Every structure is written in structure tokens, then in C-alpha cells.
Amino acid sequence: ISYPINLQTLIDRLDQLEEHEHIQPYKVLLVDDSDTVAKWASTVLSGAGMVVKHLADPLKVIGWLERFNPDILLLDVYMPQCQGDEIAKLIRQRAQFDSIPIVFLSTETHRGKQLMARSMGGDDFLVKNMDADELVAAVSITAERYRTLRRWMTRDSLTGLLNHTNVVESLAREVARAHKESRQLSYAMVDIDHFKLINDQYGHSVGDRVIKSLSRLLKQSMPNPDAVGRYGGEEFALIWTDHTQIRAAQRTDELRVLFNGLAQSNADGHFVATFSAGVAQLEDGMSAQDLIDAADQALYQAKAAGRNQVGL
Ligand code: GH3
Ligand code: MG
Ligand code: MG
Ligand code: MG
What is the pLDDT of residues 267-292, one digit of tens each? Predict the structure, then answer.
């Protein structure tokens, strides 16, 4: 099916929104030695739909940041074991936690001391006698801002798919898991055929729409939306977990047929776009890069053999 351009733009927007449909509740890690404060904050934030984990011992925070992977850390300043701002400083020395906001929650009302704590790596400073609404608003605003930031860092803006860096990281994780647990793993590199011609004949905005229509198809058809990434311009990466090469090639070929069936629209009417793909499977001793290279080699064969086909 094809739609007029303005409607198509709207559909693309909705597609991008789709991913936000399954909004995950914010995960809050609350570090406070006071049970009273912890109980109050936990009740308020859980009541607003958040998932709260309370830690009374600040020295356990690093382990819990890794395990719980919170959207936000609420940190008391005065605790018997150590100061919250010292904890913040320690966390900020580790790049892996850069995208977790730290908000102090303290009875401290002295401006200078608040600023000092923030200079140690805190994003905000909340004073403990606030009302419930204020706490919920402050936590959700900061958590949401960081989520948006993370989304921009990991996703491609044209398609909403994982970007190059993140799909390669995702593949590396799956390669490690497949080796460790002796699972099958295949990888497909998909490349639109003669894409330069599409750009040259119809213009870049039509080219962009072809890229988006393929992204949408791949996102909707893959078992897990994060198994698809935009590897490069008109190149896509498909991670087929628990698939042999043959099975992954069959399923990639089904996608190829579906893509053939889409009518792409330009100013004068419709045209058909095609892709070629190369599929490789993980063998003993192979790295993620080896897998990508093998798929690339198979893609090259598919192109040389006439395009619009899946190579092994
Ligand atoms: P082949 O069948 O061998 O893959 O031919 P091709 O023309 O698709 O191959 P090539 O890789 O040489 O061309 C890809 C082109 O895609 C080059 C580049 O200008 C274009 N391109 C890359 N990213 C984008 C994008 O985001 N939007 C548009 N419209 N074009 C893009
Ligand atoms: Mg305290
Ligand atoms: Mg290419
Ligand atoms: Mg191409």
C-alpha cells in the first residue's frame, strides 16, 4: 500500500512513537539511612507507578547500579558510613554510569552546601520536607530527560533503529552468549540494491522514504525490535539468535519477498525497490567482526550474482 506523502510522514511519526508505547516504569534506586524517609519516598514513588529499590547501606551502591540498572539514583547526603556527595563523586568517575542521573535528597537547606554537593556530580538537589507531588515531578522529569538522551545516543534518528555502534555492541553480546551457552547464532547484512540510482532518479527524500519503509518492515517482522540495526546508509544488520544459517537465510528471504511487494512512491507514481543480503553463522572461535566479515562476503556474492537475493 502507498499513501500520499503527508500521510506517509504522519505514519512515520507514529512508527517512531510506537516504540514509546511500551513505556517501562522508571526504576529508582534510593539510598538513605533513614527508614522513615525511605518508606515515605518509596510509597510515594511506587504510588506513581515507579519501581523503587531502597538501600540503607551506601557502600553497596555500585553493585546495585550494575544489577538494577536504575533510571535515576536518589541519594541521601548525611549517612553514617559516608557522605552522599562522596558517593556521587565515586560514581561519576565511572563512564558506564554517565547516563544515570543523581539527585540528592537531604534535609540540608544551606545553599552553599547544596551547590557543593551538586559540584560532586549531582544533577539536582531536593530538600526532604517537599510534598509528594513535588517528589514525583522532580524524579520523573529528570529520569525522562536522561531517557531521551540515551535514546538519541543509541538510536538512528531517521529510522529509530539501533545505530551502528549499538547494533555492533548488541551483536558482540550475542556472540559471547552463543559461545558461552553453545547456542546457534546467525547474522545477516542487508543492502538496498542500486540505491544510488533511486537517489539520482527520484531525489534524496524519496530515498529516505525507501530506507524508512524497509526499517519499518524489518522492525515489525523481526522477533525482537533490537535485533535490527542501521549498520550504515542503506545497510541493515539483522541478528538471528538461535537460528542456523539456513533458517536465518530462509527468514531473510521472506523479508526480501515482502520488501519486493511494497509499492514505493515517487512524484510520478510507484516503483519497486529490492535488497540483497548475505547471511553467515557463528562457528567456533569466530568474533563478532568475523561474523560481520563473513556476511559481507556473502552479500558481495549476492550482488555479483544479480542482486535481489540472499547469499550464503
Ligand atoms: P548496490 O546495489 O551495489 O548496493 O548499489 P548502491 O547504489 O546501493 O550502492 P552504494 O553503496 O554505492 O550506494 C549507496 C548510496 O546510499 C550512497 C549514498 O549516497 C546513499 N545514502 C546513504 N545514506 C543515505 C540516506 O540516509 N539517505 C539517502 N537518501 N541516501 C543515502
Ligand atoms: Mg541521612
Ligand atoms: Mg551499500
Ligand atoms: Mg546498496
Answer: 889 999 999 999 999 999 999 999 99
Mean pLDDT (whole number) for 202-207: 96
- CB atoms within 5 A of ion ligand 3 belong to 191, 235
**Other beta carbons less than 10 A from residue 105's beta carbon:** 27
pLDDT tens sequence across 233-261: 999 999 999 999 999 999 999 999 999 99
156 ligand 1 Cβ < 6 A: no
Give the torsion through C-alpha atoms of 237, 243, 245, 246, to 10 deg.
Answer: -120
CA–CA dist 46, 24 (Å, integer): 13
Tell me how far apart the alpha carbons of residues 22 and 18 are, in angstroms, rounded to a whole number. Answer: 8
* Contact call for residues 37 and 128 (beta carbons, < 8 A): yes
Radius of gyration over alpha carbons of the chain, in Å? Answer: 24
Nearest-atom index, ligand 1, CA of 158: 26
Q: Check: pTM over 0.90? Answer yes or no.
A: no
Neighbours of 175 (CB within 10 A): 20
pLDDT digits (tens, 9 = 90+) for 211-224: 999 999 999 999 88
233 lines ligand 1 (CB under 6 A): yes
Please list the residues that pair with 270 across neighbouring strands.
Answer: 265
Establish whether residue 223 lines the binding site of ligand 1, counting it when its CB lies within 6 angstroms of any ligand atom.
no
**Mutational pocket test of ligand 1: of 199, 230, 300, 301, the residue with most ligand atoms within 8 Å of the beta carbon:** 199
Mean pLDDT across the stretch 140-164?
Answer: 91
Residue pair 69/56 in contact (Cβ under 8 Å)? The answer is no
